[in-house]
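[PROTEIN RECORD]
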Amino acid sequence: LGDVYKRQIKSVRASLEPVDLAAIIGFTPIHLAAREGLASAVESLATRHPSAVQQAAQGQGLDKKFGLKSPGTGDTPLHLAAACGHSETAMALISAGAKIGAENKQ
């Protein structure tokens, strides 16, 4: 029963929208905005939730709830903005207090 159940959960995960899947691996709204290069959204989110600027992506959501392990990437919003070439967004994150030397799990 365990293997069948896990296959069903994996099937559900495969059908999820990207935003839902992002939540499973621990991306927050500021992670998504940084990845997409939405500097004004990053600034707004950083103003409302200053600690989110430093938050590393941790596995959560369905993975933990159903026993499917996803440790998360450990990426901060700054990692994502830089990796996607969004310099304006990266500068907005740095201005909001993002740590330049933060390390991810890769």
About this structure: The radius of gyration is 15 Å.
